Every structure is written in C-alpha cells, then in structure tokens.
Amino acid sequence: MIKGPVLTLAGKHQTDYDQNRENRLDGKTVAITGATDGIGLATAIECAQRGSHLILLSRNQEKMISTKQLIEKKVNDVEIDMFRLDLADLNSVKSAADYLIKNGFKINILVLNAGLAYYSPELLYGINSVINHFSHFLLLHLLVDHLVGSEQEPARVVSLASEAHILANGSGKFWKTYESEKIAAEILGTGSDISGAYAESKLANILHMKSMAERHPLIKFVSVHPGVVDTSFADKWKSGIGNKCSLCLVRMLSFCWKPCVRSPAQGCQTSIYCICEREIIQGEYYADNKPKSIRIRGSKDLTVIKNELYELSIAFVKRFLVPK
C-alpha cells in the first residue's frame, strides 16, 4: 500500500500490440460503451479492422451515426449496430440491455469504456459515481448471463480503469446513497479534486472486474489503464480546475503532461491486447499490455473494499434487477 498521492503516468511510447493484426476477431461481436470519441472510437476502429461485428452504445444518436459512417469509410464490409444508452440514466441502461437480450444479440466481448473525469460540483457525486461505475455495473449484471463464449474462447469483459486509482482509499463514501444533495456535499465536499470521486470510481472499475471474475469464472474479466490520452474526456475536469485556479496554472499543467500524452490509437492498445490476446489473466488489472499491481492510499484491505463495493452496488441498482 502506498501512503501518498504518487501518480505514475505511463508515457506515450508504448509498443503497439500486434501491428500486423494477426489476432483476428472474425465472427465475434464486440459491444462498446462510449465508442463515439477518444479511446472508445479508436477501440471500435481497431476491432472492426480485425473483422468484428460492432455494437455501439452511446447516448448521442447523431454522433453514433457519424461514427458508423467514419468506421465504414475505414473498413470494408463492416457490420455495425447502434443503440442509445445514456449512462447518466439507469432506466436507459436497463432499456438498452433489455433490447439487446430480447432481440438475441450475441455479444462475445463487452468493453466498458465510457466515463468522465469531472462535472460541476453539484453533480460530482451523483453523475460521476453513476456514469463511471454504477451504470456499467447494472449493464454487466443484466448482460452477463447472455454473453457468448466457449471453453476455448470464453466471453470477455474489459473495463477502462486508470492509474488514478492509487489516489483512492476505498472508504466507500462516494459509493453510498445520501438522504439529500446537501448532506452529500457536506460529507463529500465539492470541486474537481481528482483524489476524490474520480479516483474512487477508477478503483471501483478494477474491483468490479475482480468481483465478477470470482462469480463468473467461465468469462474473462479484466481492467485496463490506457495511459494519459489526448481526448475530450477531461475537458470538464480541466474547466473545473480553471474555475478554481488561474489560466496560467492550467496551461502549465497541460505543458507538463504533454510528453506523457498518447493518442487515442495508442491509448486503446492495452484494451485491444485484452480483447484479443489468448492468455490474459482472469481478474487482472493491465497497463502497457502487462499485469500491474493495485495500490491505494492507506491500509484498508482490498478484499474488504471489493466486497463492500459489490454489496453497495447491488443495493444501488436492485430496483432494476429481476430476481433469478
């Protein structure tokens, strides 16, 4: 366990995975949340180039249409389906999952890619926790028994996490439900502190995959750190900093980060590795195509945190679940 906020940022000169695309996805269906921009879009393009059928899951219908057209220009004879899924709305998540199940879509690989780094203080608790963890928890819980695989080629779930998890302590305060926004604000605070809601949500992504790996051993579950990637993902977080700090400081931080920043095509490489590579390790957290240790602030046991998170998550989404 680490004691302080030491964050190692993976550089951009990572070796690309399987540049000749010898590991194919022909005949497989890959469903991706947040596939209309950034790492999600790069992941979708790479999967299509390897022969997969794509299912795009996003809240913005117009962007999905544009994304479909973009991929079709890059890849001949690609099959793409699109469904609206708004991760800020659990009802939307339930509707999308129900539609996929009722219409017999056979998903081999599910990529839980979408997320956010910052929202305005009044929405920090609700939106960040729901989008970055609870909605993906619900989506996977609804779809897990319908994922398609075999003993030789098991179904896979890849969750986009972050090395920012090392700033979390697993206290669980960002995962709990409060009686009012006022009470939540008093306990959680407000603002754009990355060691708060975002770091805890990224720890949740990692531990979620470990929990599912224990409960569904015939499916491969992994989480990945993409590195620091140049996308629109953190725009609201940057604007949040700008509200509290001088523009000069924001520019200085951006300049310091620049040598470490990857393109989306580089940032998706570990996701692609975990999607395609045969011998991935069940429940592991990967960075730069290799397993990486999990470290958090403080001394709380990760198994305890993992079990607490699972129970809190089930309680949060239980009204959308049908008893088995």
Automatic annotation (TrEMBL):
Transmembrane segments: none annotated. Pfam families: adh_short (PF00106). The keyword Oxidoreductase applies. GO terms for molecular function: oxidoreductase activity. The keyword Cell inner membrane does not apply. Signal peptide: none annotated. Keywords: Oxidoreductase. It comes from the Eukaryota. Belongs to the short-chain dehydrogenases/reductases (SDR) family. This is Uncharacterized protein. It comes from Oikopleura dioica (Tunicate).
